[in-house]
Amino acid sequence: MSDFINNFWPMWITVIALGGIFGCALLLWWTSKIKVAANSDNTSGHIWDEDIREMNNPLPRWWVWMFIITIIFALFYLAAYPGLGSYAGKLGWSEVNQYDKEVAAANKALAPLYARFAAMPVEELAKDKEAKAIGERLFMNNCAACHGSDARGSRGFPNLTDNDWIAGGSPEKIQETITNGRIGMMPPMAAAVGNEEDVKNVANYVLSLSGSKHDSARALLGKEKFVVCAACHGADGKGNQTIGALNLTDNIWLHGVGEAAIIKRINEGKTNQMPAWGAKFTPEQIHVLAAYVWGLSHK
């Protein structure tokens, strides 16, 4: 990555941009210096198929002036706007600033609409048809890419329509999660558990906690080794929402079910991240979106 952020690349872009413009200007100047002799037949001397001759007519004046105007415009544009490597342009314009201004203008225009919802509790807001429609659009445009259009999630992305919450499903926790995002991390635990057989035994014990198909003999042996997992998941395997440790007893598997999938998690660990949306949404928008999400599991 460092190869693409050093000073060479801005200089390279600058040379290519200005070189192209001045190269075109030089070509235009050079061609204008070529004169056709008065006693010539006004051809370039190139002949195809014995009778097709290439004429040596000068470029139309309007075309030349359009070319010149384009070159002048390009120089003024590159002076005013970013386009020469790291040079920001005299006007200080950037797509990020432009985006922020447009978002701020849109939020200002929508502020009166959201003001009505701001004072309503989430439980009441989840029943409001207009608020639900707005929340659904916010969800579809921003959350559905991971959680699905039906909010039922997929492998690695939690289902938001049930009551299995990793970090808590209260209105306050949902708003906190949307605002700040979440990072869920399970470290590789194979070394702490023991050898390969111990890992397999623990995997079967984990399966037994939810009544899933497992090897009873291995599960019995794995119970003792599960103590290293209990620090996060609890002695009963019911998890800990404070630290985002999954409940292993409810037969809901975020990263795949079965002995092989659990062994993979014990050996490799897993890091999952939900981005923070506090910088994109206003508090009022987050309030409406949280109400919509909360309502998905509270029909």
UniProtKB/TrEMBL annotation:
Keyword Membrane assigned: yes
Entry cofactors: heme c
GO CC aspect terms: plasma membrane
Single biological process term from Gene Ontology: proton transmembrane transport
Keyword Heme among record annotations: yes
Domain Cytochrome c: 130-210, 217-297
Location in or out of the cell: Cell inner membrane
Pathway: Energy metabolism; oxidative phosphorylation
Family: Belongs to the CcoP / FixP family.
Classification via NCBIfam families: ccoP
Protein name as it appears in the record: Cytochrome c oxidase subunit III
